[in-house]
Design a protein that fits this description.
- Helices cover about 55% and strands about 5% of the residues.
- Strand 1 and strand 2 form a beta hairpin.
Length: about 210
């Protein structure tokens, strides 16, 4: 029997999402993109444990590009980086025809970091990015940090500033390696896919607890 998706190859895999057999190629290439695979699918679970060689190579390149940026961070600080990316940066929608690029991310992270660093020295001064898109993103970052604290998460100005400086460096340095104006955004999206639901941040303990 031919695969009902491509009509070219033999259907050898039972697809629980479609309730029919499909070919291995369609299973591998359409998984979670065109096919809403359930978590119970054995092929989906196997692909996550043993990703394809091309995926492994991309993961290795991503980690190698990001490592110089985050290697001095503590685990908690890196979790804060991932949390801010997943909950704010990856979901930011610029107005009109504008699009979010790495330079906007760098400017927003730098401005909020500077504001926090200034506040830690006892001086209240609001640093602002150069672009409107970056300013709106900076406002969202400040809002989520305030919300985290209101919910009981113990995140100091210094700790938040360290995480934001890492995001700033990544947005500028990864772009320099790749050459694209969204290289950092794409890399982080691969390493830390946006969460579907609002994460929960623990109020106590040595690290941030981020749960989708």
């Amino acid at each position: 029997m031919q695969c009902p998706l491509c009509g070219a190859r033999k259907a050898r895999r039972a697809c629980p999402a479609l309730n029919k057999d499909i070919c291995a190629v369609c299973c591998g290439t359409k998984r979670l993109t065109e096919i809403a695979c359930p978590a119970t699918c054995g092929y989906l679970a196997a692909s996550r444990v043993h990703p394809a060689a091309v995926v492994r190579r991309q993961q290795e390149r991503d980690v190698a590009a990001l490592l110089p940026v985050v290697q001095t961070l503590t685990e908690r600080q890196y979790q804060l980086v991932a949390f801010l990316f997943q909950t704010v940066i990856s979901h930011h929608k610029p107005e009109g025809f504008a699009r979010l690029i790495d330079e906007d991310v760098a400017q927003a992270a730098e401005a909020v970091a500077k504001t926090l660093e200034t506040a830690a020295r006892g001086v209240i001064y609001e640093h602002t990015p150069q672009t409107v898109t970056a300013q709106r993103l900076a406002n969202e970052i400040k809002a989520i940090l305030a919300d985290m604290r209101q919910r009981g998460a113990k995140v100091s100005d210094r700790e938040a500033a360290v995480a934001l400086r890492a995001i700033e460096r990544g947005a500028r340095e990864v772009r320099g390696i790749d050459g694209g104006d969204t290289a950092f955004l794409s890399l982080m999206a691969r390493l830390h896919p946006p969460v579907a639901a609002e994460p929960q941040v623990a109020a106590e303990g040595p690290s941030l607890l981020i749960q989708p």
